Structures are given as structure tokens and as C-alpha cells.
Amino acid sequence: MRKFYLPKQQFTQVDTLEPHTWVKVVQPTSEDIDYLCDELGIPDGFIGDTADSDERPRTEEEDGWRLTIIRIPIETPEGTTPYNTVPVGIISHLEKQLIVTICYHRTDLMPDFIQHNQRKGISVDTDIDFILRLIMSSAVWFLKYLKQISFLILETEEALEKSIRNEDLLQMMRLQKCFVYFNTSIRGNESVIGRFKVSHYEQYDTDLAEDVTIELNQAYNMVNVYSDVMNGTMDAFGGIINNNINTIMRRMTSISMILMLPTLVASLYGMNVDLPWAEHPLAFIGIMVVCLIFSAIAFWLFKRIHWF
């Protein structure tokens, strides 16, 4: 699906391709790919690189086209992790006065990016400014999703305090993976800004780039803080699990030893030899009393050393 916007006119949506147009392509079909390659002349390699879900943030140029790849956060409730990052390809051509973005996933960031610029009446003159503002929007969404992850961590911690289940521990592990993805993507987007500062200084808006860097650093610091808290929490629950296992093993050992004493007495009186009081009418009751006394003494001893 593709739509057309005019960044120089406060991101006004239009129906056809015009000068200084932004072509937004989301979840491209084969028809969209043919349009980009045949009618716009975008190199096939640029589109293929954007389709790679593991592509890292970078920028390169070919035949007058510039490809910039950044990574943006998305919510993936049906995936292996609740949140992840995906690449967005930003392809621009200075002479053709054209900007094309390609994303193979439907995200909340792009509609919010458009609505924010329309609401604020922001106009973008160059592709570098467009990329910087898109990176800033991604930093804002990183922060939004980090807050949602913090709520999930609190819910999981409360569940673990009541009962340590494998599902809750796996949830903590999945949330920890989110921090790794976010950390790598934020650093990659920051490297793109540094690359622009060196290679396109004449189009580089220093104030805007500084604002974007501040937002990225804030998101990066929050990722590190939440990651450290998560690691501490996992270590704490790991210690709790080990302690619970030790407690269970002590109790099982105590029970085995308590049951061993009556078993020992019963085994002795089960031998086919002459035994004291074997012919006594109250021998069975006496043996049972002795067994109970031994078990009670063993229980008292284990209770005293806090094995129960």
C-alpha cells in the first residue's frame, strides 16, 4: 500500500506523484515493488536491503539515489517477544525531488509521525531533515514502549512473588530480549546521525540533530536502567529459586530420616530369629510406641535446627 504526501506543505496528502513528494509504502505488494523499480527507477538492491528484517542502520548511495536504513520499534504481541524493532528504508533522490519510505511491517509510528507534523504545521525541506525527524519520532516511541515494558515487569514480578512459575520466568526472559533489540537499534540510529554530520554537513541542521541526539540518549539511558533492574531482579529470583530448592531437599531428607527409624525397628523385629519380648502379648503395641517415640525425637531435632 502506498500513499503520497508533500513534506514541504505540512505533510499534505495528495493522490498522485508531484515534485517534492514523499511516497510512503507499507507492506509493499508486488505491484508496489514494480512501481518503485519501473516507474521511479529505484535500484533493486535498495528494496532488497529494506526487506531484510536483520538489516542494521546505515546509509549508502548509488546512481544518484541515497538509501538510509533506520530501525523503529514495533509491538509484536504474537511474536517471540512482546516488542521488537524493524528496518525502515528511506530512499531519496535530490534531482528527482523525491523521498520514498519502505516498511514491510504495519506500525503505529508512521501514522503518528504524519499526524504530529500536520498538527504542528511542520514543513520539511530536505531529505536529511526528514530522516532526522523520523529518527526523533522513533526515539519517542522507544520511550513509550519502554514505559509499557516497565509495567509488564512489575506485573511479572508480582506474579513471581506469589508463585514462581516457568511462564513468568520466560516472560522476564522475553522482556530482557526487548532491551537488547532496543539498545542495538538506538545505537545504530545514532550512528546514522553521525554519518550525516560528516558526509552531508551542508544539509545538516545542527539544532535539530542535537534535539534528536538528546532523545536517543534518553531512550538509551532508560534501556540501560531497565536492563540493570531486570538483571538484578532475575538474579534475586534465581537466588530465591535456589533457596526454595534447598529448603525442599532439606525437608525431603528430614522426612526420609524420620521414616527410616520406624522402618529400622520394624525390620529388626521382622527377622526369623529369637527376639526379646517376641512372645509378649503387647509386643506389637510396644514396638509401635517405640517407633513413634523415635520419630517424635527425630522430628523435634530437625525442627530445632529449622529443617521444618
From TrEMBL:
InterPro entries assigned to the protein according to its UniProt record, in alphabetical order: CorA-like (IPR047199), CorA_cytoplasmic_dom (IPR045861), CorA_TM1_TM2 (IPR045863), MgTranspt_CorA/ZnTranspt_ZntB (IPR002523)
GO MF annotations, alphabetized: metal ion transmembrane transporter activity
Family label: Belongs to the CorA metal ion transporter (MIT) (TC 1.A.35) family.
Membrane topology: Multi-pass membrane protein
Keyword Membrane set for record: yes
Organism ancestry: Bacteria, Pseudomonadati, Bacteroidota, Bacteroidia, Bacteroidales
Highest rank taxon of the organism: Bacteria
Record-annotated membrane-spanning stretches: 252-270, 282-302
Cellular component, GO annotation: membrane
Keywords: Membrane, Transmembrane, Transmembrane helix
rRNA processing among keywords: no
Pfam families: CorA
CDD domains on file: EcCorA_ZntB-like_u2
Gene3D superfamilies: CorA soluble domain-like (3.30.460.20), Magnesium transport protein CorA, transmembrane region (1.20.58.340)
Protein name per the record: Mg2 transporter protein CorA family protein
Predominant cellular place of this UniProt entry's protein: membrane
